[in-house]
Amino acid sequence: MPKDQQRNILDAVSAPIEVARGLPNAHYTDPGTIAEENEAVLTRTWAALAVGADVPEPGDCKPLEFLGQPLLLLRDKDGTLRVFQNICRHRGMILVDAPRKIEGAIRCPYHSWCYAKDGRLVSTPHVGGPGQNSHPDMDRATLGLIEVRSHIWRDVVFVNLSGDAAPFEEVHADLLTRWQEMDKPLYHGGPDSSFVLEVATNWKLAVENYCESYHLPWVHPGLNSYSRLEDHYHIENQGRFSGQGTYVYRQLKGDDGEVFPDFEGLGEFWDEGAEYVALYPNVLLGVQRDHAFAIVLEPVTHDKTREHVHLYYAKPDIDEELREKNAAQWKEVFAEDVFVVEGMQKGRAAAGFDGGRFSPAMDGPTHLFHAWVAEKVAALRAEKDAL
Amino acid sequence: MPSDLDARLLAAHAADDRPALIALYRAASEASETETARRFYLTHAYVYALEAGSDLAPALRARLVELGAETAE
Lengths: 387, 73
Prior knowledge:
By secondary structure, chain A is of the alpha+beta class. Chain A has helices at about 5-15, 25-30, 30-45, 170, 175-180, 205-210, 215-220, 320-335, 340-345, 365-385, and strands at about 45-50, 60-65, 70-75, 80-85, 100, 105, 115, 120-125, 145-150, 150-155, 155-160, 185-190, 195-200, 230-235, 240-245, 275-280, 285, 290-300, 305-315. Helices cover about 25% and strands about 25% of the residues of chain A. Chain A has ten helices and 19 strands. Chain A folds into two domains: about 50-150, Rieske [2Fe-2S] iron-sulphur domain (Rieske Iron-sulfur Protein, 3-layer Sandwich); about 165-365, Naphthalene 1,2-dioxygenase Alpha Subunit, Chain A, domain 1, CATH 3.90.380. Chain B is built from four helices and no strands. In chain B, about 35% of the residues are buried. Chain B has helices spanning about 5-15, 20-30, 35-50, 55-65. In chain B, α1 (about 5-15) runs antiparallel to α2 and α2 packs antiparallel against α3 (about 35-50). Chain B has about 70 residues and is mostly helical. The model of chain B has no long low-confidence stretch (mean pLDDT about 95). Helix content of chain B is about 75%, strand content about 0%. Chain B has one domain (about 5-65). Classes of the chains: A alpha+beta (about 375), B mainly alpha (about 70). The interface between A and B is medium-sized, with 16 and 24 residues.
């Protein structure tokens, strides 16, 4: 397609909501288009990779793949969490093939080069010949594990693969400020407070669905008795995040009326207020007076997404029964969305679909996300055209 | 290397018995007749000790430095 026509299509996405169309089908079905989009919106930004609770103890490590990149989440002996490329600096061998605790050092299974838990190269056996473990041309100080730029916020581990994004606190200053009151210690509820949903959809459709409250009465009818559509409001921050809030958050109660402890020092708004935000590109966050959650969207392929759901509390020792009840409740809600995001993915095979329209009244947060993707892709194309 | 030591080393590798590997490679180093062999086997003992976070690792490294197999830190 000629470049001017490509630009017109993306312009139509970022046009005012009243006239805008959604992203074209190719952004959901065509691996070539998606590869370009990945560079624009997942590689050059702060993308969510994992959570700190994936490696809770010093020495814990977990290999991950993100956009085909082999990465390693590694917590050192002092508790600092870093992300490295999961490869040996010698011949590029994969270092760690399964989550485990590193007792002393990471030993490459190929020629046994060893790395400390902070990434330093500490041993190069026989590198200078049999029984000679150094060589003047092999400077260990320059051959440590390759670190990937990372930042942790609300226990979510973000990575900037391109290495040149503005600092996380700068990019996301608005949400950090908006949720400053919620900036409290978070305690992961443990294994029973995390689950994974394997969904046959492009990751963006999970964001799009999460952003808006329009679907709630239809897809989550259980909410209708206490959380009506008019009890929700849009959250819209152009180019950064969007989502929805509610004025009628209702705490989960146990059989004897017990509730989770609240985060300390919250204002009156949070008595019944709650907010659900998609932080661009790929993490869905929820904050409430007594617990929070993060859903890291792992883009597996152009039509497969792994949703990693993690629940957090205000205190470390939460009643197990209530915790399990809460996880089950959220799992039910999130599972109700699966047929929708999978249905939209299938729908994107329809050749005549033009990306769809947005309700000016109800779809503002979703449109903001589409517009952000379109603008990022257009900027990348303009940058490459200028070369 | 004595054949029984060789057999025990192979068994330790098959069982992925790291403490045994550290001890046996150290023994193999001590039983070696050439400097190169001593350094070679002691390197293996050190690498497995380093990987395991064994208390023996610093002493093994120091010995490798003495033998000229490793640079001083």
